[in-house]
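Task card 7
Instruction: Convert sequence to structure tokens.
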Amino acid sequence: MLYASNRTYRSYIDYEMQMDFSNMIQSINDNRLVYEEILRTRTLDENQRIRIVVTNQKLAELWEKYKRTAVHFKREQREYPYGIISITALKITSFAGEEKIGPLSEKDLGVIENFAELNALWQEAFDIPDRFDSTGSGVYRFRDSLWVERMQQAEAATESFLKEQNLESLNGLWLERTEIK
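Output:
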């Protein structure tokens, strides 16, 4: 009896994880599409702003959930449950929430290009093809290491990207635009 209930619980956890990772991957793909659209039209409309805010909030929330899970169950070497992806996604949300609707300046287009570059690194880490598939290439189950490996790849790519840009966080991409003078 206990074995059957444990198996049922494991199935539930695996199902929830698969759905959450599908949602994360969907968010990364939706970001790709909206960044391409913004860069093509050189403008930001209200719908695009909302999409960026919603998808990145969801990405940050789910990333933090699974980062905490990895730390708690000792699947992650680091001892703190906060990952650079969740922080970065919230920074993108902040930028989009502050940005004016309409034509974008060259500087703001440069920021969106950087977001698109970073998002492409996340897409690569999760092996998401340009022709979208809701799971990338993988089945995410708690007992497997694929989810931890993909998260670590995305975090390493983010850290490298920020280092290449000489930034500690994404704030540096638009800080002078928002700082008080």
